Amino acid sequence: MSDNRKQTLNNIADLFESQNFAVLSTQQDNQPYSSLVAFAVPPDLKFFYFLTPNTTRKYQNLKANPKVSILVNNIRNNAEDIYNAVSVTGTGVAEVIDKAIEQKALDLFLGKHPNLKKFSQAPTTAFIRIAMHRYFMVNRFQNVVEIKVK
Amino acid sequence: MKTLLNIDECLNAGKDQVGGKTYCLAKIHSHGIRVPKTLCVPCKVYEDYLHQSRLKDRIFFEINRMPLEQMRWEEIWDTSLRIRNYFLNTPVPATIEKNLAGLIDTYCGNNAVAVRSSAPGEDGASTSFAGLHDSFLNVSGTGDIIKHIKLVWASLYSDAALLYRKELGLDIQTSRMAVVIQELVPSDRSGIFFGLNPSSSNESVVESVYGLNQALVDGDIEPDRWILSRSTGNVIRHTDPVRKRYAAPGNTGIMFHDLEDHEAQTPPLSPDEIHQVWKTGKRLEQIFGKPQDVEWTITNDELIILQARPITSTGFTETDDKRSWYLTLHRSYENLKTLYDKIEHHLIPEMISEADKLKQQDLEILSAQALCSEIERRQKIYDDWVKIYWADFIPFAHGIRLFGQVYNDAVAPEDPYEFMNLLENTGLKSMERNSLIEKLARMIRNDKDLKTALENERIPDPGHPFRMLLDSFVDQFGDLSCTIGSGSECEYGENAIIQLLLEFAGRPAKSRKSNEIDTTQLKDRYIKSFPVDRRDFAEDVLYLGRESYRLRDDDNIHLGRIEAGLFDALQEGRRRLVDPGTTANDIEILLKAPGLSLTQKDQNQEETIFSDKTAIEKWISSRQIVGHPAGPGISSGRARLIKTPQDLLSFKQGDVLVCRGVDPNMTFVVPLAAAVVEERGGMLIHGAIIAREYGLPCITGASNAMKLIEDGNQITVDGYLGIITCRTEDL
């Protein structure tokens, strides 16, 4: 692995660790839809986990069309953001996984969000795993690098 | 706090508000020593202006576009130019302006004043970076004074200040600037006083010139110099220079005039006056507790202190980098005029004549020994011209910048590069060369037999119109394949240029862009923004700017011809080295010549620098790369990375030229290009100039473009935004 790729992946991992929430984009019938989700990722960044009630629009959307994208950034809502903020967009395919079988993944998720333990236990809460294909890291306003993870 | 303080209020306001320069003057004044009538716009006004107008956000955006440490000097100048233009275009909020204008009107009326910087921290105790921020002489009228206050504020981000930002502690969040408004003292004589001679602790130094002391400080006029006893003030020795000129306030800064005969023969100071300067200097030392570096002037026989600061080492000389050299590139209008005369009437004709002489000499008839000497001679000629290039040609390029600044100050255009429109179409030598290439290509296009012959590497006999024009081209501009790089490329010979001409012929005729902007109207607006009595000056600066723009390119073409002369001699030497008929003795002689050896120079040397394959790897690719927009337009094409000069010869119509920096001797492929991308930054570099002449999208300062873009990849160059987008697979 080149230093450049390694460095970029490290930067993405650092950003993901520093942030609790991501914007998830789904779509159905040509209508995109964005939601805020609490997330967690494994160190290799190949998957992206979140929980959602199975009555939500995002759930319905991703069941109908599993191609989704996520966005994580560290903006602080000030003028400096335009250059200092780092933003990562990811694309991939989402699927509902079994909480009982994927216990390790759920532990990873709850390790980061212990407050959601009760929420995770509800039978109507779905555990979603996105198999990530690519990440796009944007910094300094318009510099964009693209990384394939699958 | 008031928006304008008089000198009695400055001590109370504190150094943090009024800056070092004003605070010192206020202190001197409080001890009853005469200083010019002084007012101060405190830092608070600067802060309120920046905050209320949201200018702070825009400056932050500009400074952070790219890490400053990655910028070349030219890019830093561009950044500074853009920031300066923001200040010019951002009005002072109405409430502040009303208040400030009222006070300026009351205190200054219609009197001419000097508007100077007074940054807290400037003239600090340990190092001095005097001159990084701007001062303006001879400003009058409330509106004009406010405009110049903004320009002094803007100079907090001057290119020089950005270069020395670390030493200055320049920080957009905390840096501030106060402005001094001073009565313009008519200087009969002026000078400096050094309380402690740096080379002898028992001595003090007085230097003096007729007129303004700016010329002394800038080193333009050699002063009278007296070394005094530090304790008694008695003169130990006097250096008597040849006195010819004096400086007086001019259109931009200062102008020089000849001294009257009696002045030229008399030192500017009498013994009594020397003593008075020393005595006042000693008093200042008592007031501030340290030996002082004092600037003073005498008007109507009255001594007035303009400035005093502790003697410090200068920050500039302590650094061992090139920044202090860059600072010398800032030339005054007067200096540039002299330089122009030297370049246009002496250096360029000498270069042309030198290159012609080299071309005419028959190298084949020289003995081995004579050829060897000739190579040495040509190497020396070339080296000497390179030195002149750095000493005179590069500084003359500042003429473009001076015009840009004068234009922006006068017109305050929305686009800080609007002035470039008035510089284009100056008849660049490289454009002349390119139109000759186009003419040759047209001959091929219109003559099928000629095309077939050339494709089969048959060059028409002498006397054929194409051959005649080609020979005349090679005479004028050299064999392109020789002039674009090291002598090793010469072996491509005429075939290389034929290949290039065939490529040109394969595309429809293309001319340079038709100028869509009405330059007559633009010029008219520029000239009319000056008062009638200053319009000649406006014309002169424009002329200087255009000449600077033209010569910036032409000098490289001429230097390229001299370099080609050196290559011709080296090539002749190389030919003889491999010629079986050359005697062993001659080979021994030839091998003594610089640049000749039996093993061919490693032609791939350049290649190895670039073939850093680890940087480009499959799992990561750049989607967008940001540089500076240097030529408007948008275009897509195959990226053609120019790693070695040979790469140019296989450049194809519609390719995007991607390189470290376009050398003027490379610009002949630009008409074939869809767009130009350069790693090297700046709006005024050759690639950008030529791209604009052809109306091509151009991006400069795209750091690491050569590593991030893969040769052959499809890229889109957005010359409006300065963004290169690389085509990647679908999501």
UniProtKB/TrEMBL annotation, chain A:
Please tell me whether the keyword Oxidoreductase is annotated for this protein. Answer: yes
Highest taxon of the lineage: Bacteria
One Pfam family this chain carries? PNPOx_N
Please give the GO cellular component terms listed in this UniProt entry.
Answer: cytosol
Q: Where is the signal peptide?
A: none
Q: Which UniProt keywords apply?
A: Oxidoreductase
Report domain Pyridoxamine 5'-phosphate oxidase N-terminal positions.
11-137
Which GO molecular function entries does the Swiss-Prot or TrEMBL record give? coenzyme F420 binding; oxidoreductase activity, acting on the CH-CH group of donors
InterPro entries, alphabetically? F420H2_bilvrd_red/Heme_oxyg, Pyridox_Oxase_N, Split_barrel_FMN-bd
Q: Which Gene3D superfamilies match?
A: Electron Transport, Fmn-binding Protein, Chain A
This protein is called Pyridoxamine 5'-phosphate oxidase family protein
Q: Which organism is it from?
A: Desulfobacter latus
TrEMBL record, chain B:
Task: Please state the Enzyme Commission number of this protein.
Answer: 2.7.9.2
Instruction: List the molecular function annotations (GO) for this entry.
Output: ATP binding; metal ion binding; pyruvate, water dikinase activity
Q: What is the protein name given in its UniProt record?
A: Phosphoenolpyruvate synthase
Keyword Repeat among record annotations: no
Q: In which pathway does it act?
A: Carbohydrate biosynthesis; gluconeogenesis
Q: Which Gene3D superfamilies match?
A: ATP-grasp fold, A domain (3.30.1490.20), ATP-grasp fold, B domain (3.30.470.20), Phosphohistidine domain (3.50.30.10)
* SUPFAM superfamilies tied to this protein: Glutathione synthetase ATP-binding domain-like (SSF56059), Phosphohistidine domain (SSF52009)
Q: Where is the Pyruvate phosphate dikinase AMP/ATP-binding domain?
A: 16-320
Per its Swiss-Prot or TrEMBL entry, what cofactor is needed? Mg(2+)
What family, per the record? Belongs to the PEP-utilizing enzyme family.
Annotated Pfam families: PEP-utilizers (PF00391), PPDK_N (PF01326)
Which controlled-vocabulary keywords does the entry list?
A: ATP-binding, Kinase, Magnesium, Metal-binding, Nucleotide-binding, Transferase
Asked if Cell membrane is a keyword of the record, the answer is no
The chain positions of domain PEP-utilising enzyme mobile read 651-722
InterPro entries assigned:
ATP_grasp_subdomain_1, PEP-util_enz_mobile_dom, PEP_synth, Phosphohistidine_dom_sf, PPDK_AMP/ATP-bd
What is the role of this chain?
Catalyzes the phosphorylation of pyruvate to phosphoenolpyruvate.
Query: Which reactions fall under this protein's catalytic activity?
Result: pyruvate + ATP + H2O = phosphoenolpyruvate + AMP + phosphate + 2 H(+)
